[in-house]
Amino acid sequence: MAVKPLEDRILIKPTEKETQTASGIFLPETASEKPMQGAVVATGPGKLLEGGQRAKPAVKKGDMVMFGKYSGTEIEIKGKTHLIVRESELLGLING
């Protein structure tokens, strides 16, 4: 199943939750934070502007992005959790 976002929406595959701290302590499911970053899987064509033009998305497939903790809508694709967010809900790009 392929999902193509519409308008200014972005499909993101969130990074995996951390299950162990840097010092080696294992975290229970209830203590781990929801991931707030992920990789862009697909983008919509962009927001439709007045006059019929489209604003090109600022991100592209493969970019690593940050988003708010409660942003977007979670969906499941081939057994993996993905997130669909509006471009305006993205907080920033992660470099390197």
Please supply descriptive tags for the structure shown above.
96 residues, mainly beta, 10 Kd Chaperonin, Protein Cpn10, Chain O, six-stranded antiparallel sheet, two-stranded antiparallel ribbon, 0% helix
Describe what this molecule looks like in 3D.
The protein has 96 residues and is mainly β. The chain has a single domain (1-15, 35-96), classed as GroES chaperonin (10 Kd Chaperonin, Protein Cpn10, Chain O, Roll), CATH 2.30.33.40. Helix content is 0%, strand content 40%. Strand 3 and strand 4 (54-55) form a beta hairpin. The radius of gyration is 15 Å and the shape is elongated.
Strand content: 35-45%
Q: Averaged pLDDT, please?
A: 85
The N- and C-terminal alpha carbons lie at a distance of: 30 Å
The largest β sheet comes out as: 6 strands, antiparallel
Across the major sheet, the strand order is 6-7-1-2-5-8
Q: Please, how many domains? A: 1
* CATH fold descriptor: 10 Kd Chaperonin, Protein Cpn10, Chain O
Q: Which stretches are low in confidence, meaning pLDDT under 50 for 5 or more residues running?
A: none
Query: What is the succession of H and E elements?
Result: EEEEEEEE
Rough outline: elongated
Number of strands: 8
CATH class: Mainly Beta
In the CATH hierarchy, the architecture is Roll
CATH homology-level superfamily: GroES chaperonin
